[in-house]
Design a protein that fits this description.
heterodimer, A: 272 residues, alpha/beta, Rossmann fold, 2 domains, seven-stranded mixed beta sheet, three-stranded antiparallel beta sheet, 10 helices, 10 strands, 41% helix, 19% strand, B: 207 residues, seven-stranded parallel beta sheet, 18% strand, binds S-adenosylmethionine
Chain lengths: 272, 207
């Protein structure tokens, strides 16, 4: 990154923060920079600086930038072996609670939430579970609430579902929408509250038994990762579980010693 | 045969090698690793297109045959010399300006995640003319843009000679994008890698 470009990016992030309160200053730079470059292409301007007036004066333009920055890329039963491990290692503990509270932080368009809802149903836990699914991308949250997904992905998801240890058939959980979409069964979202929550600036979510925050922390720098991990620690009950993405870890973080590793390979942790 | 002039005294400016490989990758990488000098000093950063649920089989397999340690790239970890790093399946691999690895699950690029272009482009910005980029066998066009950027930033670019590659498309696209690249067969690529003598001062500057 040239020095000038680095200055420009800092100015851009400052402008966004001051005008709209969204704070990307502690996001990992390499991938953020690629998304800024995408914005430059789409806006047909030729420098990072040229984005600044557009963002400051055009709220709709900023909304598009926000969507660009958010990366709501997800799938059903992403990393099927993680789900498999979760069934074996965590479900038995959850079964001992009379009621269960779960927080999906950074749920994007909701595929992970529906995947978990299916697993909880199959394990007989869904009816005593309250689920909070949060993200700061409103557009993604709306898709999550609707629970309508592309038919073209269903074959892949069915495969994931089976590898994840599914006990029934995936087609039990959706019905045909239009000719190219499927609608998730409404009973899956009965206990789910979808809500706007910004991990950078918003506070704790009380007394969770389980927090899932997968493939979100990779977008943050170390300082912000530690801040968010602290937020999670303070939102969990004693002995609550934390699940991260397969390439994320508590190693070298400021909360490393507060958690024990339940399944190091699949990043399942438990508060001591 | 390759036609680099020895002006750069055995390419001592080089600090890092990035390699992109797709279809046919297992056998070419095996061949390269088997013949690599045990005292090879540069880090080799590799994007190999794999199935998204690919486990660690390839890491274990390559660890057996390579003379230097083989591992997956880890988020926020520094790049160490004399190691072979693979991008994890289903994640893009990027290099941050402080020379650490970053991973992302951003949309696929060229239908691929990890994408060769993503690693090559971010690495070229950080390492500039200290970077060597290599495109090996493959059946798609990932890597062409990234290789071009490495050349534009003054790095060295090598492409497996399409006539000798198991799948010619990827080397072909790379050569079209960067005609200044050397087209070498596999044994010439190995000879080239083994002839690199990095300045130790160069390496310790960063690690
Ligand atoms: C790659 S998706 C991960 C989705 C899902 N957890 C998975 O692993 O498949 C990352 C999500 O994190 C959200 N995100 C990023 N920064 C955030 C923040 N500061 N607060 C809340 N959500 C955030 C993005 O909007 C995006 O939807």
């Amino acid at each position: 990154m040239t020095k000038t470009e680095e200055i420009e990016i800092n100015l851009l992030l400052d402008a966004i923060y001051r005008k709209y309160g969204y704070d990307f200053r502690n996001y990992a730079r390499a991938s953020l920079k690629r998304r800024i470059q995408n914005c430059i292409l789409r806006a047909e301007v030729n420098s990072v600086s040229a984005l600044i007036p557009l963002i400051l004066h055009d709220k709709d333009f900023f909304s598009e930038v926000l969507v660009q920055f958010s990366v709501p890329v997800t799938e059903m039963f992403r990393d099927p072996i993680f789900y498999h491990a979760f069934r074996l290692q965590v479900i038995p503990y959850l079964q001992t609670y009379p009621f269960i509270k779960i927080w999906h932080a950074g749920c994007a368009t909701g595929e992970e939430v529906y995947s978990f809802a299916i697993m909880l149903k199959e394990e007989g836990l869904y009816d005593r579970t309250t689920i909070f699914a949060t993200d700061f991308n409103e557009e993604a949250l709306n898709t999550a609430k609707e629970g309508i997904y592309r038919l073209a992905n269903v074959k892949y998801y069915t495969n994931n579902y089976q590898k994840a240890g599914g006990k029934s058939t995936f087609s039990d959980y959706y019905y045909a929408g239009g000719y190219d979409s499927v609608i998730m069964d409404a009973s899956l979202k009965k206990n789910v509250t979808f809500a706007h929550h910004n991990l950078v600036s918003d506070g704790v979510f009380g007394e969770m038994h389980l927090i899932l925050c997968r493939n979100v922390l990779i977008y943050f720098d170390k300082q912000l990762q530690n801040r968010v991990l602290n937020l999670f620690r303070n939102s969990l009950i004693r002995k609550g579980f934390l699940c991260l993405g397969t390439c994320e870890s508590l190693q070298f973080s400021s909360v490393e010693n507060a958690f024990e590793e339940i399944e190091p390979e699949y990043k399942i942790y438990r508060l001591s | 045969m390759y036609s680099f002039s020895p002006i750069q005294d055995n390419f001592s400016a080089l600090e890092v090698v990035v390699i992109g490989v797709s279809a046919g990758g297992m056998s070419v990488l095996s061949e390269i690793f088997q013949q690599l000098r045990p005292d090879f000093r540069l880090p080799l950063l590799i994007v190999q297109h794999l199935h998204p649920h690919q486990g660690n089989f390839h890491i274990e397999y390559f660890s057996e045959i390579a003379p230097i340690p083989v591992q997956e790239m880890e988020e926020k970890q520094p790049i160490h010399p004399a190691r072979i790093y693979f991008a994890p399946a289903n994640y893009h691999a990027l290099i941050e300006s402080d020379k650490t690895f970053a991973l992302s699950v951003d949309e696929k690029v060229n239908y691929a995640r990890p994408s060769i272009d993503v690693l090559f482009e971010t690495a070229s910005e950080v390492f500039q003319h200290h970077l060597l980029g290599i495109i090996l066998t493959g059946a798609n066009r990932d890597g062409a843009k990234g290789l071009r950027q490495i050349a534009d930033f003054g790095g060295i670019t090598i492409v497996q000679d399409p006539d000798t590659a198991q799948f010619a498309a990827m080397p072909q696209f790379a050569l079209e994008a960067t005609p200044s690249s050397q087209a070498l067969n596999l044994s010439e690529i190995v000879v080239f890698l083994n002839s690199i003598h990095p300045k130790l001062s160069n390496l310790s500057k960063y690690w």
